[in-house]
Design a protein that fits this description.
This protein is of the alpha+beta class and 169 residues long. The protein has three helices and ten strands; from the N terminus they run ααββαββββββββ.
């Protein structure tokens, strides 16, 4: 399981989506971390209920040979995307003190030598990608604020990157 990164403030109009699920997820992550339990237990607890397929509009896409999917708006879609397997980088975007999901993030993933392998506009609140093993720079932009994170997918498994902007505006 990869690390969790919380990143500092952004200003601009906020979007309130999935407030209660996000609070439950982050609270559960904090409690499980303190208890030394695996973080994946949180997702199983949150998404135990059956999913209404009419509430899900997810579609796997591909760009430059990279499979990806994004969405997570509404309870059913959020649970459905969290249950998806086969993706090695899971990103979640939230904002404000109530950890509200945001779907308006520009995402660029750069591979070796800064070559862009994936570029998305208005992505989120959850983005899943299937990338070849290696080191990448994930560049996210929301309301004009650019944030960079380095992620290493060399060891196999799934890495999780939770990016949080402190301001809800």
């Amino acid at each position: 399981m990869g690390g969790i990164a919380f990143v500092g403030p952004v200003t601009g109009p906020g979007v309130v989506i999935m407030r209660s699920l996000r609070l439950l997820t982050l609270s559960g992550v904090a409690l499980l971390g303190l208890a030394g339990l695996p973080i994946s237990s949180v997702q199983a607890e949150v998404c135990r209920d059956p999913i209404d397929p009419q509430g899900v509009q997810l579609e796997q896409q591909q760009q430059n040979g990279v499979d990806f999917m994004f969405g997570g708006i509404g309870q059913d879609e959020s649970c459905a995307i969290q249950r998806m397997g086969g993706y090695n980088l899971h990103m979640t975007f939230s904002t404000g003190p109530a950890n509200e999901y945001v779907p308006d993030v520009k995402v660029a993933i750069q591979g070796p030598k800064g070559r862009e392998v994936l570029s998305l506009d208005q992505a989120g609140p959850i983005v899943l990608t299937r990338l070849p093993a290696g080191k990448y720079v994930v560049v996210t932009e929301r309301n004009g604020r650019e944030l960079r994170h380095t992620i290493d997918l060399s060891g196999g498994g799934v890495r999780t990157l939770n990016i949080h902007w402190a301001d809800a505006s």
